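Ligand: iron/sulfur cluster. Inputs:
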Amino acid sequence: MVEFVEIKAKSILQKQKFRDNWFWNRYNLNPYRGCQFACNYCDAITEKYLVHESYKDFSRIIYIKKNAPEVLEKEVEKLKPDVVAMSGVTDPYQPAEKKYELTRKILEILAEHGFPVHIITKSDLVLRDIDLLREIARQTWCTVSLTIITFDNELLPYLEPFAPSPKRRLETVEKLNEEGIQAGVDFTPVVPYLLDGPENIEEVIKRASGSAEYILIGAAMTLRSNQRIRFFELLKKNFPALVEKYENLYEKQETPPQDYIVRLNGLAFAFCKNYGIKNYIPPPSFERTRRENFDVANHLLLIAFFKEFKSANPYSAWAYHKASQTIENLNESITGICKRKALEKLPGVEKTISRVIAEFLSNAKSERLEKEMNTW
Ligand code: SF4
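Predicted complex:
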């Protein structure tokens, strides 16, 4: 029996230090704590995120931030609009949303104040808010990612026991795109030994390619603290033959080794090429002060995304992240700096990156990104 507990939030928008180059958000917003979908791989039950006394209550007690709209109303007055991701550690369209409508009220406020939005969900309830999402897309930028990790009906009850069916999620993606709202598939996580075979990877990518604008592949399933305990409980009970394999794959790490991730990313990259679907979300672009700086910064972040995807090394593109942040924070137009041939004087902008910037400013694209996107 699920218990709903109403709580008062002191703050609601969490600002990240850096822009995320998968989801493009700068803010995170979670209207609920806990999630009724109860996915057995969920990393929101790690101690890092948990507000429940025990991780076992994560899907049994749902905390409702009843005053979230009032708190948000005050916060947005003081902030510059930027991409808000809903939600990092809960599903914004879990069943509680039908009753409490917090996500809807929040979207109304974000729309009114010109904030772009990225929704990540497993629920077709998102279709209820098409009017607001369309309005946000018209004003600034909006994307919706529906998580789909498999269509295997025998495995789903073990992995995502209470979430809507992947078929319904894919139909939701299709409907959103038909309505002019960019929507794609978030194929995260690729669960080792259960879902990492080429047949499953190809099936998800192939079926997504018929309806989705993009598919994100998350091959680095984490296993840490409570998440690790819960997942091993699942394995021991239902897939005992996999326990040792997992122990060997993860050893003392929280993610599988780099070569495992690179191999799966390479496979997914090839299937995406074959089925003609992007394996990334195109960067947001919307009216804002010094928009060209924002576009250049995002172009660099997309190059970083590909470098990281191909190497499975989060530090492989640090220079691109650093340069991107410098440019986004500039008080002067990047075009003017480029005309003065002073790009390399900017902190973190070295020769190769300055060439990419100059090329992007004159052609709205760069050879570097084309190469990263098109070749493995
Ligand atoms: S839908 Fe997301 S937040 Fe909810 S249990 Fe599943 S993985 Fe966790």
